[in-house]
Amino acid sequence: MLTAAHSGPVTVAALAPTSPHHPMAIGIDVEHLPALPSAALLNLALRPAERAALAERPAPDRLAAFLAVWTAKEAVAKALGWPLPRALADVEIALLPRPAVVRLGTDLAPRGWRLVPLRLPGAPHTVTLALALRHRHPAPERENPWTSPAGPRSSPAAPGASDWPSPGPSTTTAPRSSSPAATRDTAGGP
Fold first, then answer.
1. Residues whose CB is less than 8 angstroms from the CB of residue 33 and which lie 6 or more positions away in sequence, other chains included
2. CA dist., res. 7 & res. 120, Å (int)
3. C-alpha span between 79 and 136 (Å, rounded)
4. CB of 92 within 8 A of CB of 76?
5. DSSP 181
6. How many of the other CB atoms lie within 10 Å of CB of 89?
7. DSSP 71
8. What is the per-residue pLDDT across 99-134, written as a single tens digit (0 to 9) for each?
9. Does the bond joining 165 to the residue before it have cis omega, within 30 degrees of 0?
10. Residue 97: is the preceding peptide bond cis (ω within 30°)?
11. Among 21-35, 40-54, 175-189, whose mean pLDDT is lowest?
């Protein structure tokens, strides 16, 4: 299994063997931002406990903590084959005492996950590798009844865009990018 991500000029990849005897899934993400994203994006991207943990951090540490949570969520999404919006809503990450997946959908104690923060020599990027050591279990049940504006591929009766939660000002993500840097606040201008 191969997973890859890029942020600006930096590309990272991870490869894991696949075997029916040792099922495993992996995901990786890399990100770099010069400053915290807008409050609207923070509200959309983080679960309430994640927002509270971020607010408790000293101001200089908040950007690094946000990027650690964001890259972990995106790495988990890649390992599960989920779209990023589902991971933002249905994955919860705790950074202390060590990075961990603490919720997947309605599963409040997901097992078999390991989050590995990685350092890139000479680069200010945040990188997280997610490993699902026992991936061949049923998909976690959704906490939220909506999926995406397009709906699941197997569902003929897909929910519409109005089924998405409304966290406040609307945001738009640039095509082919799940980067928080590619998301802009459309209510407040450029």
1. 63, 66, 67, 180, 181
2. 12
3. 12
4. no
5. G
6. 21
7. H
8. 999 999 888 889 899 999 999 988 899 999 999 886
9. no
10. yes
11. 175-189
